[in-house]
Structures are given as C-alpha cells and as structure tokens.
Specification:
The chain is an alpha+beta fold. The chain has one domain: 2-Layer Sandwich (Beta Polymerase, domain 2), CATH 3.30.460.10. Helices cover 39% and strands 28% of the residues. It contains 4 helices and 5 strands. The protein has a 5-stranded mixed β-sheet with strand order 1-2-5-4-3. β4 and β5 form a beta hairpin. α1 packs antiparallel against α2. It is globular. The N and C termini lie far apart (26 Å).
Length: 102
C-alpha cells in the first residue's frame, strides 16, 4: 500500500472531516502532496496524528518530523513526500492553506 493510501485510510478510521489532497510537487520541492484534514477537537486532532503515525510506521515508512502536538490546533506530520496538516476547524479557516496552494 502506498503512503498516501495509508494516510487516507488512517484519517478515515478516525473520522477525520473535510479531507483534501493537494498535489504541490509542481509548485514546490518541499513535498508532492499536502493532505489537509479537520479534527472536531484538540483530542481529535491528536488522535488523527497518532493514528497516521502508527499506521505509517507499521508499514515501514519514516516520519521525518511532527509539530504542534502541545497546542494541537494545527498538527503537522512530515512524511517526506507527503505533509499532513491536521487542523481544528477554526485554525483551518484562519490559515486557509487550500486557497494558497490549490
């Protein structure tokens, strides 16, 4: 199973909302994809991030970094070619990454 499918299945299993995959590889060398998802609470964003990390590591892929767990209103999980942004609804609306990258 490829990394993107693992991420999307992990998000689905934890009921992440408003999932969006944006191809950014032709716009920046940072990554090939942004995956953006909304959690319904701080606990939900943490659960989403933990599930993604657990499933990715189980399949033998590397997690390069994660940030934002303390506040957890915006958690970033860097998987190299995929960067996952897990937001609370308020933070997602405020930063509006879709508008910047879509």
């Amino acid at each position: 199973m490829n990394k993107l499918d693992i991420v999307l299945k992990a998000i689905d299993s934890r009921l992440g909302e408003n999932v969006k995959v944006i191809e950014i590889g032709d716009k920046t060398p940072v990554a090939d994809y942004f995956v953006i998802v909304t959690g319904t609470s701080i606990q939900h964003t943490k659960a989403l991030a933990n599930e993604i990390e657990m499933k990715i590591e189980k399949e033998g892929y590397e997690i390069y970094a994660n940030e934002g767990f303390r506040d957890a209103s915006w958690i970033l999980v860097d998987l190299g070619d995929i960067i996952v942004h897990i937001f609370t609804e308020e933070q997602r609306e405020f930063y509006d990454l879709e508008k910047l990258w879509d």
